[in-house]
Amino acid sequence: MAGSYYVQATTKLLLDIASADTADDTLLDALGALADQHIDNILKIHDEKIPNISTNVLNDIIMAANFYTASLYKGRREQPTEAQYWQDQFQKVIDGIIEERAVDGNTYTVDRHNSRFSNRHTFALWAD
Length: 128
Description:
globular; disordered C terminus; single chain; mainly alpha; about 10% strand; 4 helices
C-alpha cells in the first residue's frame, strides 16, 4: 500500500509546536515516515478486513499516523506520559477502523486474485 499519511502541520498542531518553529521538522518527518510504515504494516495484516479504503477511513488513518508520530516524538523527548497518551489515541483509531470493518452488521466475502496487468493483488468485495 505504501501510504503517506503523516502530515507535519497536523502533528505540530497536536504537539502545540508553532508552525514557524522548524527546529524539529527533520525529526518529525523521520518519525512520520516510521508511522506511515507502521500503519502500512497494520493494514497489510488486516487487508482482508479493510480491502477498500473510503475517504472517511483514509482520514482516520491520517489522524492515526499523526497520533503515532506524536507518540514517537514525546517518547524521544523522554515524556512517557504524553507518549502513552498519543499511543492510546493511535490505538483507539486503529482498533476502531478494524472493528468497524470487521463487524459492521454485514458479512462479506473478499476474493483475492492476481491482476492481469501487474503482479499486485486485486480484491473484490461482495456483500453476502
